[in-house]
Amino acid sequence: MRLLIKINILILVLFIFLNSCGENSPATSDTVWDKTAYTIEANNFPPPNIKIDNILTVETVELGRALFYEQKLSKDNSISCVSCHVQKFAFSDNAKFSKGVGEKLGLRNSMSVTNMAWNRNKFFWDGRAELLRHQSLMPIQDKLEMDETLENVIKKLSTDNYYSKQFYKAFGTSKITDTLISLALEQFMMTIVSNNSKYDKFLANQLSLTESEERGRQLFFTEYNPDFPEKSGADCAHCHSSFNFSNDRYFNNGLFEESDVKDVGFQNVTKNPNDRAKFKTVSLRNIALTPPYMHNGQFANLKDVVNHYNNGLKKSNTLDPALEYTRSKGLMLSEDDMNDLINFLKTLTDEDLMTNSKYSNPFK
User: Fold this and answer.
1) Which domain covers residue 41, as residue numbers?
2) Looking at the structure, do residues 188 and 205 belong to the same domain, yes or no?
3) Strand partners, 24
4) Is residue 364 included in any domain, yes or no?
5) Domain assignment present for 334
6) Would you say 255 and 314 are in contact if contact means Cβ atoms under 8 Å apart?
7) How many Å apart are CA 123 and CA 133, to the nearest integer?
8) % of the chain at pLDDT higher than 90
9) Total structural domains within the chain
């Protein structure tokens, strides 16, 4: 295993060397090849999806963390990535729409960037970024977010001796490029792991769920059955499956009638009318920390979300078939059912994530 890590790091270094050779490239191999492998600690998760051309190293992860908190990435040096992805909110935001430079509001609710190392189907609500490195540069250039150019960001960082040293340590060159910025940001975000919730401890037989939480768990994983209401569940795992409580797919979840659809979501990327009003299924980990909910932040709390699926789905042409199946009768959840389901969802909160120093501001 260690041999494989070393080989992957050598591949990474060669990739970086070929893409960053110039007058600031190192003349010796000391700072190029001697990297420290970074290991993601997530024993109860499957292997992470780390790209072979950007194998994690301690030096690059630390650079990425600094960039994640760096306000120089914005036009007026007022905001950073963490302005919209706040640690205490599971690296999301508690506003319906986050504020960018000049108090301008974004068009969609801020998504959490936890457990990105296990994402396998593009990024953003509409999937417009193929890789996390691509996603990392888009908010910088977005007029409603950081409203800056990559050229200006490079100029600002290049005049800072701190970053010259950090890029040299991470990549073996003090010449800063947008590619290296994106690789560093990708590495840091890949390391933000949430896997220590009450539910994780329950799975590890370290504690028990309350009666209400356990009943909510059963409702969550039990399929919908309109013919036998007493055996019917909420069927949440249809979309929120696997260890990360997401299947990484794009769905229309019935927020609007067909005539009221304004944001077509995934269709903007695929150009396929069958993808109209489809958005990415988010992970339910730390869901209690991330209100408001949905891509447009239209639900203020979890009760509103459960009510929507219970008896509030809107008819539209691309509504997910499994949700359409529940529309006529609804999920048939009682008030007690809904409360139990919400109590289970709260067990997915990882308290450690909110204060873990590995992810906090390195400048404080």
Assistant:
1) 2-194+355-359
2) no
3) none
4) no
5) yes
6) yes
7) 10
8) 89
9) 2
Query: How many Cα atoms are found within 13 Å in the side-chain-facing hemisphere of 360?
Result: 9
HSE (side-chain half, CA atoms, 13 Å) at 25 = 14
Asked whether residue 21 falls in the same domain as residue 67, the answer is yes
pLDDT classification of 34: cutoffs 50, 70, 90: low
Residue-wise pLDDT tens digits, 238-288: 999 999 999 999 999 999 999 999 999 999 999 999 999 999 999 999 999
Please indicate, yes or no, whether residues 187 and 203 belong to a single structural domain of this protein.
no
CATH code of residue 62:
1.10.760.10
- Of 344, 169, 258, 147, which Cα lies nearest the Cα of 161? 169
Structure tokens at 8: 């992957």
Which residue's entry shows tokens 């304004």? 262
Tokens encoding 298: 């239209």
264 and 183, same structural domain?
no
Cis peptide leading into residue 46 (ω within 30°): no
Q: Give me 207's structure tokens.
A: 């504690």
Same domain for 62 and 118? Answer: yes
Query: Hey, is 129 helix, strand or coil?
Result: strand
Domain co-membership, 214 together with 326:
yes
3-state secondary structure of 121: coil
pLDDT tens digits, one per residue of 164-203: 999 999 999 999 999 999 999 999 999 999 999 999 999 9
pLDDT at 2 over 50: no
